[in-house]
Amino acid sequence: MATLKVTQHSVDSRLPVAITTGEPAGIGPELVLMLAANGELPPASVAVGDPAMLSVRAAALGLEVTLVPCQPGDPLPDGDGVLPVWPVALRAPCAPGTLNPANADYVIETLTVAVEACRAGHAAAMTTAPLHKGVIIDGGHTGFTGHTEWLRDACGVDEVVMMLATDDALHATRAGFDGSSDLRVALATTHLPLREVADAITAERITRIARILDADLRDQFGIAAPRIAVCGLNPHAGEDGHLGREEIDIIIPTLAALRAEGRDIRGPYPADTLFTPRHLVDVDAVLAMYHDQGLAVLKYAGFGSAANITLGLPLVRTSVDHGTALDLAGKGLASPASLGVAIALARRLADQRAA
């Protein structure tokens, strides 16, 4: 049975990783609770969400968790089964599996609390459980397209990069990167309808994305000279212009200019053959042109044990590799593995930045 306490426990002096609990009707809240109950929540972690909702969900699932409400900047309680929580109140009642647009503002507020804590020096990094884009839009946030773009705007930067990595790739050295289960994939475009992707592939966009990817592979992942392979947009990378001219007119000259800056950026390659061990064996990351071109392959290679990293932000943000799984919510059937990977990665990247 979950308990809601305000008593002091042992204290972890490190800045915490702030974990937003995501869509309250989805699996996000219970994933955080599972990690805490199983003793798998990395030390110096704090949830951002509604303590009462978390208490009810833990009780329904039979999870032994002690929830300790606190505020950003407070000493962080620690201990087995203890889950510190920065409180954000739900706007409306919530049942697992049933979306309610009235809670869209609640989800956005959890993100705002985490970002402000990172920027104020009260958190080392943030990790986000999954949200539901549609219900946030239905709740009045009509321009919302996802975590990545919201964080870009909230942090006031011009461009960010979505990159997903399998668990093996998060720990692999260059010598150990075998190009099969080890995979890092960044995206030139993110949450766009496929019909709009070709128009979004410009020299300016590719240049900005590639520079951020190269810089953060160096700064956050400690890769001294990143090797990046780039997918073509069209089948067979355009087949010398017979299947589209984006490669000839935009991608090839842009990559040449990036190489002239001293970056090891290769391609463009046909995406249907690039994602094979033979072609990836000496590559540190792949830059795909659109969402499903890259992420379908990555999720096949490591679904449930991969993490999403937003590059180009003034803070560290990681996330899970899956969605809200409304059909599993409240049943205790979802795996918290990806969230655990994402939290641990956030801590490692924050430590790398601080070094």
From TrEMBL:
Cofactor note: Binds 1 divalent metal cation per subunit. Can use ions such as Zn(2+), Mg(2+) or Co(2+).
Keywords noted in UniProt: Cobalt, Cytoplasm, Magnesium, Metal-binding, NAD, NADP, Oxidoreductase, Pyridoxine biosynthesis, Zinc
A single GO BP: pyridoxal phosphate biosynthetic process
Pfam families, alphabetized: PdxA (PF04166)
Residues holding substrate: H147, T148, K299, N308, R317
Functional pathway: Cofactor biosynthesis; pyridoxine 5'-phosphate biosynthesis; pyridoxine 5'-phosphate from D-erythrose 4-phosphate: step 4/5
Subcellular location: Cytoplasm
UniProt keyword annotation of Protein transport present: no
Major enzyme class: oxidoreductase
Main location: cytoplasm
Positions with a binding annotation for a divalent metal cation: H191, H236, H291
Cofactor needs: Zn(2+); Mg(2+); Co(2+)
GO molecular function: 4-hydroxythreonine-4-phosphate dehydrogenase activity; cobalt ion binding; magnesium ion binding; NAD binding; zinc ion binding
Assembly description: Homodimer.
Note: The active site is located at the dimer interface.
Function: Catalyzes the NAD(P)-dependent oxidation of 4-(phosphooxy)-L-threonine (HTP) into 2-amino-3-oxo-4-(phosphooxy)butyric acid which spontaneously decarboxylates to form 3-amino-2-oxopropyl phosphate (AHAP).
Homology family: Belongs to the PdxA family.
The name this protein goes by in its record: 4-hydroxythreonine-4-phosphate dehydrogenase
Species whose genome carries this gene: Vreelandella subglaciescola
Designated gene of the protein: pdxA
